[in-house]
Amino acid sequence: MEALRAEMEAYAKAHHVPILNEHGRRFYAEFVRQAQPHRILELGTAIGYSALLALSLASADCTVETIELLPERYETAKAFLARSPLGRRVTQHLGDAGDMLDVLREQGRTYDFIFIDAAKGQYPDYFEKATPMLEQGGVIVADNVLFRGYVLHPVMMPRRFETIVERLQRYLELANTPPYTTKIYPRGDGLALTRRK
Questions:
Q1: φ/ψ (deg, to 5) at 116
Q2: Cα–Cα dist 173/16, whole Å
Q3: Which of 38, 39, 62, 68 is most deeply buried (CB count within 10 A of its CB)?
Q4: Phi, psi at 92, each rounded to 5°
Q5: Sign of CA pseudo-dihedral 136, 184, 30, 16
Q6: Which residues pair with 114 in a beta bridge?
Q7: Rounded to an integer, what distance in angstroms lies between the CA atom of residue 52 and that of residue 165?
Q8: How would you write the pLDDT of the chain (197 residues) with one tens digit per residue?
């Protein structure tokens, strides 16, 4: 497992595929270890790195459903996942995360752990669509919520990032509206841990 994980990290670096950075990886691993989830929903498969990481630390019966927009990354993840026995517990979905969330909700799916690491400008939409499927006491983890620090310090922000930053700020507002409480871990690009009380 360690060798495969190292290979995936090298692949992501060489091909400029965004996966959890070193700091985010450490926090994410701790969140999963503490939560011991049974059903994980992941928005943004990339190459399957975070799905395998989560399964290596979660409950023994844990399963992951993961959504990826890009066909090339979907296929790359499929190949990596097939090389791990944990990959059998991953169900991949190809398509837009916003659309797929509607489908999963209509199917009555529920999850005790949701990981958001997809299109930053869509985080508020993802939150509003995913939370009805979050079980009582469940958690949501969102990556890149500080977006290069501009979410907390927008003064020096380039104009092209205004919409993304505004939407991430909106996401954090939603994630701090009862019954949700959120703590931000600022190392790396910002990881937000949201609990439903």
A1: -110, 115
A2: 31
A3: 68
A4: -95, 140
A5: positive
A6: 41, 140
A7: 29
A8: 789 999 999 999 999 998 988 888 999 999 999 999 999 999 999 999 999 999 999 999 999 999 999 999 999 999 999 999 999 999 999 999 999 999 999 999 999 999 999 999 999 999 999 999 999 999 999 998 877 656 666 667 777 777 888 888 899 999 999 999 999 998 777 889 999 87
Helix intervals (H) in 82-188: 97-106, 123-130, 162-174
Rg (CA), the chain: 16
Place of tokens 């841990």: 193
Q: Is 83 strand, coil or helix?
A: coil
Which residue matches tokens 């997809």?
Answer: 118
Name the E strands within 8-164.
39-43, 63-68, 90-94, 111-116, 134-143
Residue 184 three-state SS: strand
pTM of the predicted model as reported, rounded to 2 decimal places: 0.94
